Amino acid sequence: MTITIPRHLLPADGRFGSGPSRLRPSQLHYLRQADPGILGTSHRQAPVRSLVARIQEQLLTLFRAPAGYEVVLGNGGATAFWDIITYGLIEHRAQCLDFGVFGGRLARAAAAPWLTAPDVRTARHGELIAPERVSGIDLYAWPENETSTGVAAPVHRVAPSIDALTVIDATSSAGGMEFDAEQVDVYYFAPQKSLGSDGGLWLALLSPAAIERAERIAASGRYIPEFLSLGAAITNSRKHQTTNTPALATLLLLEAQLEWLLGQGGLSWAAERTRRSSQLIYDWAEASPIAAPFVARPAHRSPVTATIEISPRVSVRDLSRTLRANGIVDIDAYSGIGTNQLRVATYVSVEPDEVARLLTCIDEVFPRLVEYAC
Prior knowledge:
With about 375 residues, the chain is an alpha/beta fold. It folds into 2 domains: about 15-25 and about 265-374, Alpha-Beta Complex (Aspartate Aminotransferase, domain 1); about 25-265, Aspartate Aminotransferase, domain 2 (3-Layer(aba) Sandwich). The chain is built from 10 helices and 12 strands. Strands 1-9-8-7-4-2-3 form a 7-stranded mixed beta sheet, sandwiched between helices. Strand 2, helix 4 and strand 3 form a beta-alpha-beta unit.
């Protein structure tokens, strides 16, 4: 059975994926118009170093960073940064919050043989668990937004930075959720979500305490592969470059997005936009006979990753397949999460009106799929 959604109901852009996010057309125009002295040139020369310096300054402004904080960057994405944390930021033992796939992955990385086994606090998918100050812990870590489940966690210090670092995975929240930079020592992310770029790069906002920790561990004699050396990344970032060659198109797309975000009003504007988009989904799901929010507690629901359980009267695979055939793509659940679930990214590049059109299309398709199933 082929279901065609009337064209006037469809969103203009049907990409609602949780990673990577959609790119705005003006970003692609920015890339096409880039100085030819940047693409295809050495990342250690002035044109590229100036680009990196602008991005660092833009991020410090966007995040309202306190004095002494630095933006450090390197290749490999957030996955590489999990290993960077284990080599270069955990002195002895970490506490990791595992309330989804990505928090769990850092917890496994923190079980490195040269460290004491981490204190892992676990919650069921769709729920949140809080950190707890424990003697002997020198680093507390969790995702601000668990991309797999759509659970959002507050950013706050568990202990003073002189005793323990607070480390936040912000890959799917950076640029789309409010936070207080004074409450965190390491706020790390890849730029392919609300920051509207491609993957393969990690960036981190580091406090003076985090920089001191990284430099002290680097000088301690601990074996650290060069690619995973946070000390080397700090040294190179102060020169506005990465340890090895970055994807320059990724940096240009990121710069375009940061200029747009700052021009619109910065992080407060972005956070309000994502909140408005996600609330449309949660309000619809709570009122709908065919859907319900996966995250039961409203205070724990993500403003940038809305996960929804769909009535078992229709297979979510059939629903997703039908929407995809009409140009609405990448709203599938994360593998192993939920039972009959959709996951919709409401990153800042997604307009709230487009989210409303997506919901209209689901309402249009669902009863026809029920009819077909009968």
